[in-house]
UniProtKB/TrEMBL annotation:
GO terms for molecular function: sigma factor antagonist activity. Residues 115-142 form a coiled coil. The lineage of its organism: Bacteria, Bacillati, Actinomycetota, Actinomycetes, Micromonosporales. This is Regulator of SigK. It is found in: Cell membrane; Membrane. Residues 6-39 form the Anti-sigma-K factor RskA N-terminal domain. It comes from Actinorhabdospora filicis. It comes from the Bacteria. It is a single-pass membrane protein. Signal peptide: none annotated. The chain crosses the membrane at residues 98-117.
Length: 243
């Protein structure tokens, strides 16, 4: 992915890309944690700014409705001798009042619904940004740990796998360097060697991944699998010993 993909982050967050550009941006965001975090934060900001566009009832609408209701002529009570008849004027007043009341209900309902949807979007984007920020902080902690140990191994399909582990933090950071991009139906998957058995540590959509809970593991491995992952490695591309 060339550097131009970085410039798509803002337009992607605002949903201002065509289908080809959107696919290109999404491929880039999978491999670029910093751009993914930036896109999430831009979405949160855009959603917050969109609150100003929520539709509110026009000023004075409530007062106009109440005046219409107060001026509506009341019909006489029904009697046994004379059936109730609604005059044309009363019918017009009733229709106008109903329309005005419906307008108030529609305006208030639209405003409330818009506000609720936007609040959900803001909350989701904020949670996503916080999650990415927290993961970046944990990655930085592993890289800066006093007992951090680094290993670099060649990958079977090209490129390298760089592994930085910290036993004190019980975590390892794996980075793919120069590895080929995969087709849409394939994905990178991480594994931990625990007692000679490879246990999945999850998919690796980005170029860098954090794996925690490595205490019982002796090695970390990377493979390419079907997009949804596999129960066991089918195409290993790299494996490193955890120090």
């Amino acid at each position: 992915m060339n550097d131009d993909a970085h410039t798509l982050t803002g337009a992607y967050a605002l949903d201002a890309l065509d289908d080809i550009e959107r696919a290109r941006a999404e491929r880039h965001l999978r491999d670029c944690p910093s751009c993914a975090a930036e896109a999430a934060e831009l979405r949160a900001t855009a959603a917050r700014l969109a609150d100003a566009s929520a539709t509110a009832p026009p000023p004075g609408l409530r007062e106009r409705v109440l005046r219409e209701v107060a001026g509506t002529r009341q019909l006489p009570p029904r009697t046994a001798r004379e059936p109730l008849r609604e005059t044309p004027a009363a019918r017009r007043w009733r229709v106008r009042t109903a329309v005005a009341v419906a307008a108030v209900i529609l305006a208030l309902g639209t405003a409330a619904g818009t506000w609720a949807i936007q609040e959900d979007r803001v909350r989701d984007a904020r949670e996503q940004a916080e999650q990415l920020r927290g993961e970046r902080e944990r990655v930085a902690a592993v890289l800066a740990a006093p007992d951090a140990a680094t290993s670099t191994v060649p990958a079977g399909d090209g490129g390298q796998m760089v592994v930085v582990s910290s036993r004190s933090l019980d975590a390892v950071v794996v980075t793919r360097v120069g590895m080929p991009a995969l087709a849409a139906d394939r994905a990178y998957q991480l594994w931990l060697d625990i007692g000679g058995r490879m246990v999945s540590a999850g998919l690796m959509p980005g170029a860098t991944a954090l794996v925690e809970g490595i205490a019982p593991a002796s090695r970390v491995a990377l493979s390419t699998e079907p997009a949804g992952g596999s129960p066991v490695p089918t195409h290993p591309v790299g494996i490193a010993t955890l120090k």
